[in-house]
Amino acid sequence: MGFNLKQLSDAVQFNCDVADANFAGNYTMCTYLLKMRELYRWSASIEQSDKLLTNLVAEWVEQKEAYWESLEGSDFRPLLIDGHEHDPFDIQTINLDLKQHGLIYGAGYGRGCRPEFYLASLVETDIYDTCHVFISDHEYARDLSAPVAMSQENRIYVRKESVRRMLWEQIEAWRWRKSPDGAFSKALHSLPLDSDPAYALEQLVTMQMEHVINHEVGEVEAGGKLGDEWADMLMTHAGSKIEILARAIKDHLADTMVTLPILLDSADPKEIHLYFANMSAIRQELFPQLVAAYEQWCDTSSISVFKRLIHPACNHWLSHAEKMLDDFRNMGEAYAIRDDDIVTYRPDFATH
């Protein structure tokens, strides 16, 4: 039996739809609508810079939601490749079979223990430190979540199409807010967003891809320090404040280990602005000194205040990640945190 791309992509898409049927409702309404617009854009092969017709989007969303409702409780399908049937989470074996076909497959569990799948064209492989990086572009199957990257052991899967889509969502949200200030606005400065949006978007994609890869390398290094218990803690407390806090702390640990040192060595203003434009609210709340350093850098262009933060911050986040693991070991499922506990995880050193 020959390789059948359509059969495979249909099976992966079915699993994506089953995941969405059970988890799409976990987003806020605003985030959900933005993601549905971009899922429609992808399904209809519409370029990011092309305008969407509201009535067609609304009709498609209604049909998609009805389909998802029919899938609730369905099991994931196995994947058939060259006559061999695979469990959809057996990512290594599947990718060995797909290598000769120029494809890459991703599967795993994301935030809130949400199953995630995709199938895409493999456009580049590389090695960063001890990590094997697989970069994809055109996606044949995807879900609503569509994270830009995932890491498993020392393998990193980066989705260029998802990076492009994420940035375009960001551009659209920025335009709706009509906010002339802020990190994203500064990152867009000197890019021809109005006259040549496709070119401007690709410039942002190039920068963001480096951030994503460096962050995932940091995630792998941080994971090596924290061990398998970290994943156990996330799975046990999926969807809770503990998971949200733990992911933010590990993100800061990964970035102080890898991403920020590389970013600050290059000292490219657009890249620094873009990094801070994509820092989540919980991460800003956890690390106000880094936000203050960025604001000071915007005023003075001095990179030294950033560099003084890196080493103490890295030690801080590793210590607090280990503290969370200790609390989890001692309390297990009973482990809990309150909203006002979050401030106790902040660094206590100053930026000056």
Protein described:
The chain is an alpha+beta fold and 352 residues long. The chain folds into 2 domains: 5-162, no CATH class; 183-345, no CATH class. Helices cover 58% and strands 14% of the residues. The strands form 2 sheets. The chain has a 5-stranded mixed sheet with strand order 3-4-5-7-6, with helices on both faces. Strands 1-2 form a two-stranded antiparallel sheet. A hairpin with a 2-residue loop joins β6 and β7. The termini are far apart. The relative contact order is 0.09.
Spell out the key features of this protein.
two-stranded antiparallel ribbon, single chain, 2 domains, globular, five-stranded mixed sheet, 352 residues, alpha+beta
Mean pLDDT: 92
Helix fraction by DSSP (H/I, runs of at least 4):
55-70%
Number of distinct helices: 13
Q: Which range does the strand content fall in?
A: 5-15%
Structural category: alpha+beta
Distance between the termini: 67 Å
* Largest sheet composition: 5 strands, mixed
